[in-house]
Amino acid sequence: MGARPSEVVFTSGGTEADNLAIKGLFWARKRPRILISAVEHHAALDPAHWLADNQGAVVELLPVDAQGRVHPDTLRAAIDANPDDVALVSVMWANNEVGTIQPVPELAAIAHAHGVPIHSDAVQAIAQLPVNFAESGVDAMTISGHKVGGPMGVGALLLARGVDPVPVLHGGGQERDVRSGTLDAPAIAGFAAAVQASVDRRPEQAPRLAALRDDLVSRVRQAVPDVILNGDPTDRLPGNAHFTFPGCEGDALLMLLDAKGIECSTGSACSAGVAQPSHVLLAMDQDTARARGSLRFSLGHTSTQSDVDRVADVIAVVVERARRAGLT
Ligand SMILES: Cc1ncc(COP(=O)(O)O)c(C=O)c1O
C-alpha cells in the first residue's frame, strides 16, 4: 500500500485508528478547528464531536454535494478562513454507504499548502480501489482487517514519518510510542495476508465487481422505473449500489428481501437497527422520507452473477409489497 513498515501502527481496528488520528492530532497540534466531512463514518465523526463537547474543539463539518463529494474549493475556503487555527482535516477515501470516492490527493495538497495534517479513513477503499499511502499525500490513513476479508478486531493507522499524534493508549511504548500494548500477532498475520490478497486480486476483482454492480443497477432500474441510484453514478466503489425506492420504508424492504435470502443494508451496516435516517443521505440534501427508503447492496469477492439475478428476479414484487405496507 505504499507505506514503510515503520509507518504502520497496528490497532484494534478502524474505530481505534480513527480515534487515534483525530484525537491524537488534535491534542498534538493544540489548535481548535477540526475540519471533517459531513459524511464520515461515526468512528471518525464521534471522536471529533467528543473533542468539541469535552476538550474545546470546534468541529466544522465540510458540506458535500448531492453525490456526497467534498469539493476541493470547500476545503480551501474553510482552511483559508483561518489557517493557523486548524488542527487537522479528515476526509474518508470512499463512503461506506453510498460508495462515492473523495478527491483525497487533491484535498491533501490543499491541506499541506497550509501546513495542516490530513487524515483519511480508507477502510472501505483498500480492497476495491488503488490506494497508495505515500502517493496520496495524506499524513494518516485508517485501514481495517474485516473489510478486506481478514480478521475482526485488527486494523492500522498508517502514519507518515514525522507525524506524531498524542497517544490515546499509554503504556509499554509499542508502535512508535503511539499505541502501547502487546500486539495481537496472529490477528496481524491474518490481516497482512488479507491485505496482500486483496491488493493482489484487485486488478481482476474490481472490474468484475463493477460489471456485476452495473448489471444490478440496470436491472433494478428496469424492474422499478422510479428507483434512484444514490452517490456518484460512476466514481464510486465498484462493489457498491445504493438505491432509494420512493414510497418504501427501507426496513420493510430489508425484511422482505431477507425472507428471500438476500442480505443488504439500510444506512451504514454498523448503525443498522438504530431507526435514524442516515446522516450521509441527509448531508447529501435528501429529505427524511427519501433517506428512509434507501437500501445498500454490497458486492464482494464471493458475489456472483446468480446473486444479481436473484435480486433482479424479486425486486419488483418486493418493492410493490413494501409500497402497499406504506411509510410509517
Ligand atoms: C468507513 C469505515 N470506517 C471505520 C469503520 C470501523 O472499523 P472497525 O469495525 O474495524 O472498527 C468502518 C466499519 O464498518 C467503516 O466502514
From TrEMBL:
The EC class name is transferase
**Entry cofactors:** pyridoxal 5'-phosphate
Report the InterPro entries cross-referenced here. Aminotrans_V_dom, Aminotrans_V_PyrdxlP_BS, Cysteine_dSase, PyrdxlP-dep_Trfase, PyrdxlP-dep_Trfase_major, PyrdxlP-dep_Trfase_small
Q: Which Gene3D superfamilies match?
A: Aspartate Aminotransferase, domain 1 (3.90.1150.10), Type I PLP-dependent aspartate aminotransferase-like (Major domain) (3.40.640.10)
EC number of this enzyme: 2.8.1.7
Q: Please state every residue range assigned to the domain named Aminotransferase class V.
A: 2-311
Q: SUPFAM superfamilies this protein is in?
A: PLP-dependent transferases (SSF53383)
The entry lists its GO molecular-function terms as: cysteine desulfurase activity; iron-sulfur cluster binding; metal ion binding
Which reaction equation describes what this protein catalyses?
(sulfur carrier)-H + L-cysteine = (sulfur carrier)-SH + L-alanine
Entry keyword set: Iron, Iron-sulfur, Metal-binding, Pyridoxal phosphate, Transferase
Q: Name one Pfam family in it.
A: Aminotran_5
Per the similarity annotation, which family is this? Belongs to the class-V pyridoxal-phosphate-dependent aminotransferase family. NifS/IscS subfamily.
**Name of the protein described by the UniProt record:** cysteine desulfurase
Name the species this protein comes from: Acrocarpospora pleiomorpha
